[in-house]
């Protein structure tokens, strides 16, 4: 993302311009959350908090040479050349920060997300992730950015809630709002501060001890000059001092550059002292020059690195090695090698400057997008809807525009606050007009409340009625009337709805209980069918087709013996047939046979009902299906005549033939069903005739 790259570039090289010692006290200023947070001091709107040790170790004593004929020297030119150059100062500052704690370098690898585009809930989640998973000293800028954006969004959110509260008749002094997001944020932020304070507390003593140790090493280095002993012995002691220095540990970042300059100054004095043994000195000078040439070549190669962030992190590391690991070179090459290194640094700096020029153009484009969004919100505000449904759509649209504003990206710093202020005013203008509309609805809502209370009283009067036909019809009528009535005041809405729903539920529960009592047989049938269905579900095929088919038929026969089930439970028959279809498929039973086996269930139901009209309807339905199948077959066969010259392999011909065969199979099935239905009816008629004959014989 463009903004992430921008932020990371700013973070990578710049570091923090001052040492982190305390947090300032004060309320977060109201300005656009798009502001780049460049000040390393966190703004805490709650309390002033000490975060790092404020008692700093004593600075290295002024660099003075005690040897005869020497004056107070200035720091080595190669280490301070270009001091006015911003990029060199930035690198020094960042290396000083990393030198205090190596884990702090990890901050370069933690993505700086677009916190401006994130919701309060997402900001809390990201803060939790950082505090849980990252080094506390490496996430300061991330936490500051999250806190800044969260405070702005929460301030806007709470102001709107207060405005809504007042517009609904509340007193400003009585306004209270319990925000879950705010409570969660405070908890996580407190955890972060505790971890941070503990970290700096532990770090403080270690840094002070290391600083004292390094000052002692400098004193030891100074003492090697002009000693009256063998130069080889002195040189050996010098190497031991260098080794001690390399292992002396980190010092406070605000002392880092001074103490290194002092150390290197005395290193050079020692090399001057070695003029009596040029061989030793020149060997070191040559080694140091070779190493610095390697660093310069690596720095120059970074010009071709496409990833600017990666290039600057590498450059920062090279400067650190130059300062900490490699000693001075002879005066003849000192100026030249430093000039090459400095120039390579400035080349990358210029690339970054060019990048930011392009970024400014993007910010201008973002500004235009945000102006369009602000104007769109203003346009909606000036044309507020005149009904609830349309206004709800406008509210949704404004929310979409609001999200788009946050996702539009950064704008030029000079118009940052102005853009944010215009956006907030546009949103508040819409909210004021929206609230004014709903305020005018209060009169209508009160009338709606009176109407609903009348319906509620009527429902309560009917809930224990025993006149089922009249009461049921009336209950349904008042439920429909309730739906037609508009909104009521919010503070009554839930309560009156609950009372009305409870009265209706009470009545219909009694009605259903009454029906259940009168249909015990149907309930018993349902329970039996349900048990049969569960056994069918657990049935497993044995692999013997005839045996399995006989078992399935026994399930069907059992199912036929159970009568009708309650109307609201009739889908159990569909479940039964669905399971049968799956089993028949496994047994490779053709569709017609399976349909006829299942149809026996329908035949049994018709026989048990002894309803001539139902039987007649079933016969009429089957005959209709037979006619439809015949007509479809006739039409398809006519279509085949158009393909008289076509091969049977023709896809269209094959498709028509397949459809004809399918319809013929269906016709056979319907004919078989009609036959079963006729047999069942004749059996019923025969049974009826037998009963009449038996009755006549008894009378005789």
TrEMBL record:
UniProt KW Coiled coil keyword: yes
Biased composition, class Low complexity, residue ranges: 11-27
Ranges of compositional bias, category Basic and acidic residues: 41-53, 61-86
Stretch list, region Disordered: 1-88
InterPro entries from the UniProt entry: DUF349
Sections of the chain in a coiled coil: 589-687
Pfam family, one: DUF349
Keywords: Coiled coil
Protein name: DUF349 domain-containing protein
């Amino acid at each position: 993302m463009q903004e992430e790259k921008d932020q990371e570039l700013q973070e990578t090289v710049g570091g923090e311009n001052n040492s982190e010692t305390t947090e300032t006290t004060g309320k977060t200023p109201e300005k656009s959350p798009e502001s780049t947070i460049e000040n390393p001091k966190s703004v805490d709107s709650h309390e002033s908090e000490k975060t790092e040790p404020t008692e700093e170790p004593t600075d290295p004593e002024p660099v003075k040479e005690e040897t005869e004929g020497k004056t107070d020297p200035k720091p080595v030119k190669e280490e301070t050349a270009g001091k006015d150059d911003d990029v060199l100062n930035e690198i020094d500052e960042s290396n000083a920060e990393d030198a205090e704690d190596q884990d702090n370098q990890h901050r370069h690898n933690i993505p700086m997300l677009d916190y401006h585009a994130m919701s309060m809930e997402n900001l809390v989640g990201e803060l939790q992730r950082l505090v849980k998973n990252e080094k506390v000293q490496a996430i300061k800028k991330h936490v500051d950015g999250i806190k800044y954006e969260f405070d702005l969004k929460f301030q806007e959110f709470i102001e709107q809630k207060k405005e809504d509260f007042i517009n609904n008749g509340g007193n400003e002094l009585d306004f209270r709002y319990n925000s879950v997001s705010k409570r969660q944020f405070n908890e996580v932020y407190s955890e972060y501060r505790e971890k941070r304070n503990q970290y700096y507390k532990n770090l403080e003593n270690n840094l002070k001890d290391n600083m004292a140790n390094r000052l002692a090493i400098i004193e030891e280095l100074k003492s090697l000059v002009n000693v009256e002993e063998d130069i080889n012995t002195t040189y050996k002691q010098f190497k031991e001092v260098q080794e001690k220095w390399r292992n002396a540990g980190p010092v406070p970042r605000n002392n880092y550059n001074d103490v290194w300059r002092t150390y290197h100054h005395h290193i050079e004095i020692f090399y001057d002292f070695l003029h009596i043994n040029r061989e030793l000195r020149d060997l070191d000078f040559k080694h140091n020059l070779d190493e610095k040439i390697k660093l310069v070549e690596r720095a120059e190669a970074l010009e071709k690195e496409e990833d600017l962030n990666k290039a600057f992190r590498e450059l920062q590391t090279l400067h650190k090695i130059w300062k900490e690991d490699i000693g001075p070179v002879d005066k003849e090459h000192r100026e030249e090698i430093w000039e090459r290194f400095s120039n390579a640094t400035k080349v990358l700096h210029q690339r970054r400057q060019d990048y930011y020029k392009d970024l400014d153009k993007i910010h201008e484009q973002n500004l235009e997008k945000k102006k369009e969004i602000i104007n769109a919100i203003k346009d909606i505000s000036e044309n507020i809807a005149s009904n609830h449904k349309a206004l709800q759509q406008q509210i949704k649209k404004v929310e979409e525009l609001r999200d788009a504003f946050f996702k539009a990206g950064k704008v030029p710093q000079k118009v940052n606050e102005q853009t944010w202020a215009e956006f907030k005013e546009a949103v508040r203008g819409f909210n004021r007009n929206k609230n004014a509309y709903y305020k005018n609805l209060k009169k209508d809502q009160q009338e709606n409340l009176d109407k609903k209370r009348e319906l509620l009283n009527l429902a309560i009067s009917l809930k224990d009625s025993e006149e089922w036909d009249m009461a049921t019809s009336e209950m349904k009528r008042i439920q429909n009337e309730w739906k037609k009535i508009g909104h009521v005041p919010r503070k009554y809405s839930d309560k009156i709805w609950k009372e009305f729903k409870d009265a209706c539920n009470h009545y219909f529960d009694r009605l259903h209980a009454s029906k259940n009592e009168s249909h015990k047989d149907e309930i018993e049938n349902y329970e039996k069918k349900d048990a049969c269905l569960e056994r069918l579900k657990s049935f497993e095929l044995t692999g013997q087709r005839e045996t399995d088919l006989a078992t399935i038929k026994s399930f069907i026969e059992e199912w036929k013996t159970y009568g009708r089930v309650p109307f609201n439970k009739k889908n159990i028959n569909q479940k039964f047939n669905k399971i049968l279809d799956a089993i028949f498929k496994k047994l490779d039973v053709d569709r017609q046979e399976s349909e006829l086996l299942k149809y026996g269930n329908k035949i049994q139901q018709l026989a048990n009902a002894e309803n001539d009209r139902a039987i007649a309807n079933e016969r009429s339905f089957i005959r209709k299906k037979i006619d439809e199948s015949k007509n479809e077959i006739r039409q398809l066969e006519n279509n085949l005549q158009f393909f008289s010259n076509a091969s049977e392999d023709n896809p269209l011909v094959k498709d028509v033939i397949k459809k004809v065969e399918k319809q013929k199979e269906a016709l056979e099935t319907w004919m078989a069903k009609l036959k079963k239905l006729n047999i069942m009816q004749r059996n019923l008629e025969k049974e009826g005739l037998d009963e009449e004959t038996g009755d006549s014989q008894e009378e005789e």
